[in-house]
C-alpha cells in the first residue's frame, strides 16, 4: 500500500476525493437537523423556520466560498486560524484558534451526552455516562489510526445520514401529495393558529442559533484541506456542492416537516433535551406507515452523533496541532506519531469529552442544553474569523501583485460575500437569546453568551503577553505555513 504523501506541515495527505466530498455533504447533517429542527418549527412556525434556515444557509454558502478561496491557495491544517494570524494579526489568530478548538472540544462532549440520551431508548436503565465513555474510547481509537481512517469512518457515517434524508424527502413529498400515509394535509398546517410566521421576526431571530448550530461542521472542509490528496482539485468540488446540499437537505426537510406536522404538535413543543429521541423525522416516518420508524431514526441519530464526535475530535486536534507548530500552544501538542496523527493534541481534546460525564451529575437534559449553547456561539465566532480573514486575504493577494486568474478557486461574490456574512453573523450573535436578556435570566444569558467574553479575553490576553515582542513577518505566498 502506498504511504500518503506528507503535507507541508508534517501531516499525511490521506484524504481522497470521495472522503472530501462526503465530509462536505455530511459535515453539517446531524442532531441539529434530525432533532432540533422540530423546535424551530414549534417556536417560529413553518414559515419562520424556513426563513431562518434559508438566511443562515445563504450566510454559510458565502462563508464557504470565502474559505474555499483561501484553503485552495493555502491548504493547511490550521486553516482559518492560520489565515487570521497571517492576514489580520497574531492576536486575532490566537483567539480564533483557541476558540475553534474549544468549540469542537465542547461539541464532542455535547455529542457524548446526546449519545447517552439516544442509547436510553434501547437501554432505559443504563446510566448515560457509561455510553459516553464507550463512544469516547471508540472515537479516540478511530482518530488515532490515521487521517485516512478518520476519512473512511466519516464517509460511511455521513452516507447513512445522506441516505436517511433522501428517503425522508421521498416519503415526505409522497405524503404531501397523498400517495402514502392517508389523506394529505395540504397547506392546512401553514394556516393553523398563528402559522406560518409565529411570533414575527423576533421568533425567527431566536431560532437563528439552532439553525446556525445545525450548519456548523460545514467549515471542516477547510481544516481537512491540510490532509487532502489534491486540495486544489477536491476542495472546490466540495464547496460547489454546498448550495445544493443546503437547498435539498435543509430547506427540503424543513418544508416537509412544516407541511406534515402542525407547529402546535406536542412532540415538537417538548422543550426537554431528554426527549431528544423524539425526532420530527420519526414522526413523519411513523405517519408514513413505517412500523419500526422510531428504532430506525434512533439508530440514524446515533450515527449522526458519532459522526459529529468523530469530526469534532479530528478538527480540534488538528487546530491544536497547528497552534503548537505556530507557537500559540505548548510544543508537546505539535508531536506526530509515525502515521502523521497529532496524538497529544487528540488526547487533550478527548479529555474535554469527559464533560459528557456531566450526565451522571446534573442530568442529561441540562448538560446537553448547556453544552449546546456554549458550543453554538463559539462556532459563530469562528465564522466571523473566516469572513474577516478572507477580506484581508484578497487585499494581501492583490497587493502582492498576483493575478486573480491564478487562484485555484475564486469566491464569486467578493467583497459583498464576506461583508454580508459578517453583518448577518453580528445580528445572530447579538440576538440569539434576546429573550433571556429581556427576562433578566442570568443563567440562560451566561450559557448563551459565555463564548463571547472568552474570545475577547483570549484576544486581549495574548496582546498583553506579546505586545512588546516583535511580530514575525511572513510572506504567505512563499513561506511554509504551519
TrEMBL record:
Membrane spanning residue stretches: 22-41, 47-64, 100-123, 129-146, 158-180, 200-221, 242-264, 290-315, 341-362, 368-391, 412-430, 442-460
PANTHER family: AMINO ACID PERMEASE, GENERAL AMINO-ACID PERMEASE GAP1
Annotated localization: Membrane
Family, per entry: Belongs to the amino acid-polyamine-organocation (APC) superfamily. Amino acid transporter (AAT) (TC 2.A.3.1) family.
Record's GO cellular component terms: membrane
Keyword annotations of the record: Amino-acid transport, Membrane, Transmembrane, Transmembrane helix, Transport
Designated name of the protein: Amino acid permease
The keyword Transmembrane appears for this protein: yes
InterPro entries on file: AA-permease/SLC12A_dom, Amino_acid_permease_CS, APC_YAT
Keyword Transmembrane helix carried by entry: yes
Record lineage: Bacteria, Bacillati, Actinomycetota, Actinomycetes, Micrococcales
GO molecular-function term, one example from the UniProt record: amino acid transmembrane transporter activity
Protein species of origin: Glutamicibacter mishrai
A Pfam short name: AA_permease
Domain Amino acid permease/ SLC12A: 19-473
Topology versus the membrane: Multi-pass membrane protein
Amino acid at each position: 500500500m502506498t504511504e500518503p504523501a506528507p503535507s507541508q506541515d508534517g501531516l499525511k495527505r490521506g484524504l481522497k476525493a470521495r472522503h472530501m466530498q462526503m465530509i462536505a455533504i455530511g459535515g453539517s447533517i446531524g442532531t441539529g437537523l434530525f432533532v432540533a429542527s422540530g423546535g424551530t418549527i414549534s417556536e417560529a412556525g413553518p414559515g419562520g423556520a424556513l426563513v431562518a434556515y434559508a438566511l443562515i444557509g445563504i450566510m454559510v454558502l458565502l462563508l464557504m466560498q470565502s474559505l474555499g478561496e483561501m484553503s485552495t491557495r493555502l491548504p493547511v491544517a490550521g486553516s482559518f486560524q492560520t489565515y487570521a494570524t497571517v492576514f489580520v494579526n497574531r492576536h486575532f489568530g490566537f483567539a480564533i484558534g483557541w476558540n475553534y478548538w474549544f468549540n469542537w472540544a465542547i461539541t464532542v462532549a455535547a455529542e457524548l451526552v446526546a449519545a447517552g440520551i439516544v442509547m436510553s431508548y434501547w437501554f432505559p436503565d443504563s446510566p448515560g455516562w457509561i455510553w459516553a465513555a464507550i463512544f469516547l474510547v471508540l472515537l479516540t481509537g478511530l482518530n488515532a489510526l490515521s487521517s485516512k481512517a478518520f476519512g473512511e469512518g466519516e464517509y460511511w457515517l455521513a452516507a447513512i445520514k445522506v441516505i436517511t434524508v433522501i428517503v425522508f424527502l421521498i416519503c415526505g413529498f409522497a405524503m404531501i401529495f397523498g400517495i402514502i400515509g392517508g389523506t394529505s394535509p395540504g397547506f392546512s398546517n401553514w394556516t393553523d393558529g398563528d402559522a406560518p410566521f409565529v411570533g414575527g421576526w423576533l421568533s425567527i431571530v431566536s431560532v437563528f442559533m439552532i439553525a446556525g448550530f445545525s450548519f456548523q461542521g460545514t467549515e471542516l472542509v477547510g481544516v481537512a484541506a491540510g490532509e487532502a490528496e489534491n486540495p486544489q482539485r477536491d476542495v472546490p468540488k466540495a464547496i460547489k456542492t454546498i448550495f445544493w446540499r443546503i437547498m435539498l437537505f435543509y430547506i427540503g426537510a424543513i418544508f416537509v416537516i412544516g407541511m406534515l406536522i402542525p407547529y402546535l404538535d406536542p412532540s415538537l413543543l417538548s422543550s426537554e433535551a431528554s426527549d431528544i429521541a423524539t425526532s420530527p423525522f420519526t414522526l413523519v416516518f411513523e405517519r408514513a406507515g413505517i412500523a419500526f420508524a422510531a428504532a430506525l431514526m434512533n439508530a440514524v441519530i446515533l450515527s449522526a452523533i458519532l459522526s459529529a464526535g468523530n469530526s469534532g475530535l479530528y478538527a480540534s486536534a488538528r487546530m491544536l496541532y497547528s497552534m503548537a507548530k505556530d507557537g500559540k500552544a505548548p510544543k508537546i501538542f505539535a508531536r506526530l506519531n509515525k502515521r502523521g496523527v497529532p496524538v497529544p493534541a487528540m488526547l487533550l481534546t478527548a479529555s474535554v469529552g469527559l464533560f459528557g460525564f456531566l450526565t451522571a451529575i446534573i442530568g442529561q437534559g441540562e448538560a446537553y442544553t448547556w453544552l449546546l449553547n456554549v458550543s453554538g456561539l463559539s462556532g459563530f465566532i469562528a465564522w466571523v474569523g473566516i469572513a474577516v480573514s478572507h477580506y484581508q486575504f484578497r487585499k494581501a493577494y492583490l497587493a502582492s501583485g498576483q493575478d486573480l486568474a491564478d487562484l485555484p478557486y475564486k469566491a464569486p461574490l467578493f467583497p459583498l460575500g464576506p461583508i454580508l456574512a459578517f453583518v448577518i453573523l453580528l445580528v445572530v450573535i447579538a440576538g440569539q437569546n434576546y429573550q433571556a436578556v429581556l427576562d433578566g435570566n442570568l443563567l440562560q444569558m451566561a450559557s448563551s453568551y459565555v463564548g463571547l467574553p472568552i474570545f475577547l479575553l483570549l484576544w486581549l490576553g495574548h496582546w498583553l503577553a506579546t505586545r512588546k515582542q516583535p511580530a514575525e513577518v511572513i510572506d504567505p505566498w512563499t513561506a511554509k505555513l504551519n
